[in-house]
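Students often ask why we bother encoding 3D structure as a string. The short answer is that it lets us treat folding as translation between two languages. Here is a chain of 152 residues written in the first language.
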Amino acid sequence: MTPALIALGIANQFLTPVAICVVLPVLIVTIVTNARSRADNNRKEIIIKAIESNPGIETAQLIEAFGKPSTPSRPNLLNRLLLGCMFTLLGIVFAVSSAYFHFHMEYMNGGAVIGHLISSGVCFAIGISYLIVYFVGRRTNGVNKENNEHRD
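And here it is in the second language, the structure alphabet:
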């Protein structure tokens, strides 16, 4: 093999995980953040135009009608908690089974163990993300309920 092909192989082995694990999540967060800010700006423009065109309009009702989307309801949050627990547990099961296959079954090839480890990582990551969404949603629901109680 030529040194150029070896360098290309090393670069490919390094760049692919970095692109998947670093660049892709940053791009997703950037796209979601831009979409939210664009939606907020559109809501503001609509409210300002409505107030300019009809000064007698009741602004509190208009702002409430065009307000931010509601937070997740309790059944949705509980569904996320359930999915988070299931995926996390499934990731742990895959990890334990891959360790068992690796240490106790000599006839297993390395591909099955690697497959279990990859499945474990994917399931565990999905489960943890669902759990994070649940806890953040629960906290924001609690804050919103407290704000609504103080308004009344």
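Translate back mentally: Residues 3-53 form the longest helix (51 residues). Keep this in mind for the problem set.
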